Amino acid sequence: MECSVSRTNLNCISLADPDTLKSVALLKQACLDSGFFYVVDHGISQELMDAVFAQSKKFFDLPIIEKMKLLRNEKNRGYTPVLDEILDPKNQVNGDYKEGYYIGVEVPEDDPQANKPFYGPNQWPSDEVLPKWREVMEQYHNEALRVAKSVAKIIALALNLEEDFFDKPEMLGEPIATLRILHYEGQVSNPAKGVYGAGAHSDYGLITLLATDDVVGLQICKDSSAQPQVWEYVAPVKGGFIVNLGDMLERWSNCIFRSTLHRVVLDGRQRYSIAYFVEPSHDCIVECLPTCKSESNPPKFAPITCSAYLSQRYKDTHADLTAYSNRKA
Fold first, then answer.
1. 240's torsion region: left (phi>0), alpha (psi -120 to 50) or beta?
2. Phi, psi of 67 (to 5 degrees)
3. Cα(301)–Cα(284) distance, rounded to whole angstroms?
4. pLDDT for the residue 209
5. Nearest to 279 by CA among 256, 236, 319, 313
6. Is 80 helix (H, G, I), strand (E, B) or coil?
7. How confident is the model at residue 6 (pLDDT cuts 50, 70, 90)?
8. 160 — phi, psi (to 5°)?
9. Torsion of CA 59, 64, 66, 70, to 10 degrees
10. Helices in 61-159 by DSSP H: which ranges?
11. pTM over 0.90
12. Which helix (H) or strand (E) segment is 26 a member of?
């Protein structure tokens, strides 16, 4: 049984604030408390943000037969239909009532890097169907990576590391950075009956930058072990990002920083959001940071490569592609 849902207050970090110590203190408090915070003054224009939402809506307005031509492939690039993903199988009666589209780092098919699980060419709608769509999405992908790297510098300082710790080639020098546009089509959520826009989950990687429209739906649970669980709405912020930490950063920090459960619960209105997931390179070893362990607090997790961890998490939460063999146009 769940208690009533309230709204939460999150710390807000301005990337234009010259007071680095203030930003580090605000971020550290947020990472210890909930793993969620706002980022504003990030340098991405409102014009570009609006263009991504507009282009997103144009794609999701296409007939399903057109969208299924771009069904996600084994590299996790392309369209994900409604119910494709089930993030909380213990509590969901069906999958998530959302559709999405994955856009990763563009790597040509003949590049040796394309052999890695999350690298390769993206799938793109044709210019005849959606002119300028690719141009807008690629511009946003590049801009969001710049913002993510700026946030990662503050996180490094908050963990008593060098500011450029996450800039190394094996980390964010060659990242697995994935843009995912999302559309919740207006299904009324009912947690008591296991119906969600998106089931309860934590994100897999380093950090996630989330831009949303003005429809409230995101909820977080700061203490997943509490009974009953307490869920709080996170208000959208116009032109800014809701940023949350992923499981890899929780592993790196030895659980000092939080990767918090969150879900989407909707009232029947359509909702659009833009998620940007940032993970380190495929071969990066995620293991306890030297500043996060001691004799009284030894490492809680065994080292693991980013690629191995991500591959298992995607496999656990997405439908097998063979399920669509008779549906793809």
1. beta
2. -65, -35
3. 15
4. 98
5. 313
6. strand
7. low
8. 60, 35
9. 80
10. 64-68, 133-158
11. yes
12. helix 20-33
